[in-house]
Sequence to fold (108 residues):
Amino acid sequence: MSLERIREMKAKKSNWSKGASSKSRGRNHRPSPRVAQVINLLTTENHLQLKKLMQEVEKGIILRILDRTGGNQRLAAKLLGLKYTTLNEKVKRYHIRFQKRPIDLIVS
Fold:
């Protein structure tokens, strides 16, 4: 690496450490107003709210995909990008009960 290139890299690093704005570095860390509203709600309430919210979202997604696949967990796991065993653990954890339907009766 050339001496000139090393100096350029050091100069950039010193600019970042001096508190250059995040926009000048090409990053925007300010959340959208809706995200900020959710963050404020979660931080003013119980600290476990975020975990509960994420579990509810995850459960809703699993239920929707299982409904779409007629209760077929193998196909649902494939659609979700999960291993079958991981999806099965989540189904047990959230106490999801589903009867498997024949594939030709599934309405898309």
Remarks:
- Confidence is low (pLDDT under 50) at residues 20-24.
- The radius of gyration is 24 Å.
